[in-house]
Amino acid sequence: MKRQPDKKIYLYGRLSHEDELQGDSNSIINQRKILTKYAEENGFTPYEFIYDDGFSGADFDRPAFAQMIEEVEAGNVATVIVKDMSRFGRDYLKVGFYTEILFSEKDVRLIAVNDNVDTGRGENDFTPMMNLFNEWFVKNTSKKIRAVWQAKGKSGERLAVIPPYGYRKDPDNPKQLVIDEESAASVRRIFRLSVEGYGPAQIARLLNEEHILNPSGYKYEHGIVKKARPCKDPYFWNTTTVHKILDAPEYLGLTINFKTWSKSYKDNRPHLNPPEKQLVFEDTHPAIIDPETWDIVRSMRQHKRRAPRYGKSGLFSGVAYCSDCGSKLYFHTRSIKNKWGTRYEGSYSCSEYRKDVQYQDKRKCTCHFIRESQLTQLVLEELRDLLRYIPKHEKQFARVVMDRSAQEYKRETAAKKRTAEKHRLRIAELDTLIERLYVDNASGKITDERYEKMSGKFEAEQEELTQALAFLETEIVAEESQAVNVDRFLSVVRRYTEIEELTPAIVHEFIDRIIVHEPEQARGDRRQKVEIIYNNIGAVDRLALKGLGA
Asked: CA 512, CA 537: separation in Å to the nearest integer?
């Protein structure tokens, strides 16, 4: 095979992370030395040496390799020289496609120096065997690496190579994370802005305006990630980046291993693991965010607040619920114009009621209307009462809450357990009835038609009861495992001496949900019941507190 004029000669080298462990024999420098010596001694000049460093032989999406194949497909390559066939690749089928089909079609000569392969001298019968052995090698290596990673992950050692934004590896112990104060300040600020009611898009816009380095840009500029590629725009923050930071439990000091999995060494695309297959280890590194802030952000992100057409977002959006149908209350505003200008008045009403606004005679619920100013005043007064009382009577308050919680839990759980037992008895009874029906049908006492009708009815009832029983059992287990956390609530109270104005952060810090009842008319007065359910402790009996001196 003669070399075609004006076509390129490529000397190709490749080194994976696993090859680095085997010493200098496979190093890029050593490969270059062998290839250039061979090319010059055998007249393969001029040549171009290209290489991929840090890429597995099973991975054919390598920058230099892709560049070379693109030139081959364009018909611009005469010869490709590698140290051995394993440097070309370790996938039997793909290597075979390139060397036996594509290179043959494009009249490209392939030389593997150490394996004595030269397609210019005809086919080598041992080449397919070498390719098969090379694939077996990477498969075996992959199994060993997976076993090592499984052992490390189960022992609590962090598997992720790149530290989260806000951290860097400890210079004295690379397996340990330490806080990087400069980027951690940005993480704390993002959480603080979220607590104050800013959405991810608003936070990203603010960071862009202030020209703050994004996580990728920061890690590149500060050398936190080795061999990192520069960002196109290191100062651009998008909503997805903010979402990831707000959803990262690593900022609580947790290590989460096995978040993803891959099918095999040939298909290493990551697939998300379900939570039950992930392993969580606590206190593995310093926390940047405290649990209280994390819980507030979680609550606010679960109750996304959409800005209305006019004015600001609702203070209680995602927190206020209808007492009758359990739906959220929608926040809406109306503009009121006068000689001083335009002001906006906010109010809430049942979302289920507003869905059926076009079908007034078929509505599933009533309005449950309440003005935001009224709800704000009510909540503010109750919070101020708690702040006046609790610092002086912490022990009495804890006792009242625990007694009330124990009574409510005992009453509600007992009722659910009674219902669950009734369901179990009825399911067993239905089993007996269905069995009798089968016997009666087999003996000719009832017709097939009658059997089908009655058994179908019993089976439908049994399926409905089985589903209801599973739901009840889940609720009972959840309630038994959920304890009232008075200390957690008291720690929030201690951070405040007085609340002058309600903010989204304060609302979510104290309140789990607010239940609004339909107003009633009594002797010309409008009365409306509102229940406030607090985080960690549930509802508070204000009458009991007043009896203790509140």
From this structure: 9
